[in-house]
Amino acid sequence: MAIESAADRAIFLDAAEFGAAVEYTIAATGEIIAIDALWIERPLAAGFADADEDAIASTLLLRADDIAAPVEDDLVERLSDGQRMRVVPPIAPDGTGMIRVALEIYAPVVPPGYVPTYYILGF
Predict the structure, then answer these.
(1) Count of domains in the chain?
(2) pLDDT band at 51 (very low <50, low <70, confident <90, very high)
(3) CA dihedral in degrees (51, 18, 66, 76; nearest 10)?
(4) What's the CA gap between 118 and 97, in Å, rounded?
(5) Domain that holds residue 24
């Protein structure tokens, strides 16, 4: 018998309690899935004298029942503030129905040679 159920795990990720409302976009299909997850941000500089004190490590803890197989380049958006990040390794299932994924800031790639077009409207 399992010690906890999927419903038990969902309590810890509830956006009204500890978690955050997140839109998870599957890179391969573009499918967007609304989930609650635990969005963790911690300073990287802790314990390092010469580290960038503004650097933040972001991690997302989610239920495997919500996203069974997260992969690199999937996108996540925290709905409370619009923060968008992309999934990067490590992607670590914990064996209890939860998955921890590392995140990095999402910056869309501009194609080489791209020149923006501006239109000037005369009134």
Answers:
(1) 1
(2) low
(3) -40
(4) 49
(5) 6-105
